[in-house]
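Quick one:
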Amino acid sequence: MATTHDTTGSVVPSITPNNNNNNNSNNHTSQQVSRINGTTIVSIPTASADAIASFSWGNYLKTTNAHGAPVSYFRHAPLQEMWGQLTPGMKVEVINTDCSYNSNDPKEKIFWFAYIVRLEGYLALLRYEGCDDDSSMDFWCNLCNKDVHCVGWCGQHGVKLAPPRSIEYRQTDWKSFLVNKLVGAKTLPDSFRQKIQFSLRCSFKKHTLVELIDKFQVSRMRVGKISDIIGGRLRINYENGGGEHFWVHHTSDLIHPAGWCHVTGHDLEATDEYKSEAARISQTKSYPTNIATPDLFRQVPMITSEDEQFKEGQKLEAVDPLEMSRICVATVGKVLKNGYFMLSVDGSSTEDGSDWFCYHSSSRVIFPVNHCKINNIPLSPPLGYEGEFEWERYLTETKSDPVPRELFQIVKENTTNPFSIGMKIEAVDMMAPHLVCVATVANVASNLIRVRFDGWSADFEQWIDCQSTNIYPVGWCELVGYKLEPPKESEQENTESTKKSSKKPMGRKSNKRKRLN
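Output:
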């Protein structure tokens, strides 16, 4: 693999002096600049201006004295493989926000050199060259922003460079100063912009059909059509759903190709015409252009008839899919084909099974009995269970057998969990998956992290796998143009703009157990 950084050459940059007498010149009105606690906060609009919120990650990290989880922790994140090679001290060319150059073109952008002081997710705390130990002009910037470039870019494209007015007096020979600072220094690769675009590609296309979970009754699937794609996340409109839609990552196990329900035996709410067409497609492997092909979806391990499989009635532990703050005692309710099964939460499921949830045996949020005990995780016993819960006693009382330990994926893989308590992330609210929220890693256990949505109580916390595609590095929303939900303030508890009022802590016997928002 080619190195992900370049070193700067020996070409002396062309520097444009500031016109300090022109204090009324336009300073890039398209750019949002503010100063908070002595730090300059720069927010440059991305392609989707609607996705740019007033929330500032840089200021929030400073006030909370927190750190963002590294991009390298997120296997699905754009540029994940190369991001670890970006380091403090690396040089870039960025917008000069303290410039009064009198240009005939008021929209012309003036750049200057800066270096990385600190990395938090996709964000970098930058300092202009020439500031030395003075941090008063430090500013946060998403390194994937379209106005961040490798050293040499301005020279190649005829873009003006000028030092910030506040420090211009500190050097009498800026060219010599820059030669000493820049020659041989690390910078972004010339192809950095192309790498960003390549990493954001998604093979799914708009207007194609898929089978997806019914958010109103999670025990069945429905047919949906992809209406939007942002950062690898799909907005899927339910067919004949009156405008209802559902957001998922394109590798989610909540979506499947046409014919999947027919093959696995999963319940499907669809027209007879669609079911007949889906059955034909699954047999002929001939897919019309409006049908998403199986190769686009998450691939699960193949299960053969010779392999030992989960059996109906066996017991296990699982993250409650409808109350994700708890890990509960569960039962294999029904065995489907190809390694899939329906999971029932003991003591909480409805009698008609309408809140059963489909899992594949390779799922990373199901566990063998005593997994919680071994990893010091609270296990929620069945509703109404009396006395201290012990698996051996419970298996005897229910005349049940546990799912053999060796069948679980987390046992087979022995995953290393890289996250630490207190790290900041951007996380999908799995109970309202159109929302991506400012969040904190509240706990780490085995392959799991417990996500706390900042400003919300522990009732809203969610256990998810450390490899989940529903968590992202700080700055991901800005990178892809998705709206980020800021932390809840106390007076916002019942507002629509943060989390929907319908997302309240669901009791185990809640009549909302069978649906998502």
